[in-house]
Amino acid sequence: MAQDNTSTLIAALRSRRCAAVIGITALCSLGLPGTPRAAGAQDLEPIPIELPKPMFEGTPQNVAVPNLEKPLGRPRDPFLAPAGVTNVALHKPVTSSDMEPIIGDLEQVTDGDKKGAEGYFVELGPGVQYVTIDLGAPYDIYAILFWHFHKTARVYLDVVVQVADDADFTKNVRTLFNNDDDNSSGLGKGQDMNYVETAEGKLVDAKGSRAQFVRLYSNGNSANDLNHYVEVEVFGRPAK
Fold first, then answer.
1. Model-level pTM?
2. Which of 104, 139, 172, 200 is the most exposed place for a label (fewest CB within 10 A)?
3. Residue of 145, 146, 157, 153 whose CA lies nearest to 55
4. Bigger pLDDT: 133 vs 28
5. 35 with 85, same domain?
């Protein structure tokens, strides 16, 4: 009988010790203050964003577009991603639904120049148009940051951002952003809000999506039927 009681006591102590270890590990994984970092936890740091000079100040007026998000009223918070993330779209090849832009060259979409002045943007024809960036290899993508024409306050319509495994967007297509509320672009109805273009650009959380191709759509803007791109940046790191 005494031996049975001793065995029971030892089992109980082992169970409590295991529970304590599990509890400490859970706290470490949460990164709570005063707890040691769990082994293998990722270090996060702000992605390296360099913004162009603002072209207008204050709250835009008379932008008559429904489902329009309110201005934040302050600079955007830093976007955190794993260490080593860079703009992997810089100088990568760009194709488009309009291969003969009205103004500019498609190379400007990834040339690293984000100025809002005349001569720094590509102008595509009216209606639904897109640009596609070939990253050259699969990357783990954490954020996509892009600028349409931002010299004046405009809202670009039916903005959709997708990633895929192939240039034709038939394999593993994922939609990361979609503010087309009536499916007028034919890509499905989106739940995201319209927004006013500023020098901060639009940042889309890609949540570590693995892809080689990035595509951005628009369908004219609040000023006219044309589509414009100043720059697209894709923050990621090579897939392992």
1. 0.81
2. 172
3. 153
4. 133
5. no
Q: Is residue 214 part of a domain?
A: yes
**Contact assessment for residue 156 and residue 196, using Cβ atoms and an 8 Å cutoff:** no
**pLDDT-above-70 percentage for the chain:** 80
Residue 85 belongs to some domain of the structure: yes
DSSP structure class, residue 107: G
pLDDT at residue 158, as a whole number:
98
Q: Give the sign of the dihedral formed by CA 68, CA 71, CA 76, CA 77.
A: negative
The token pair at 15 is 């169970």
Q: Which residues pair with 215 in a beta bridge?
A: 132, 162
For 25, phi then psi, to 5°, come to: -60, -40
Q: What range defines the domain where residue 195 resides?
A: 44-59+78-238
How many domains would you assign to the chain? 2
What contacts 18, CB < 8 A, 6 or more positions away? none
**Domain membership flag for residue 66:** no
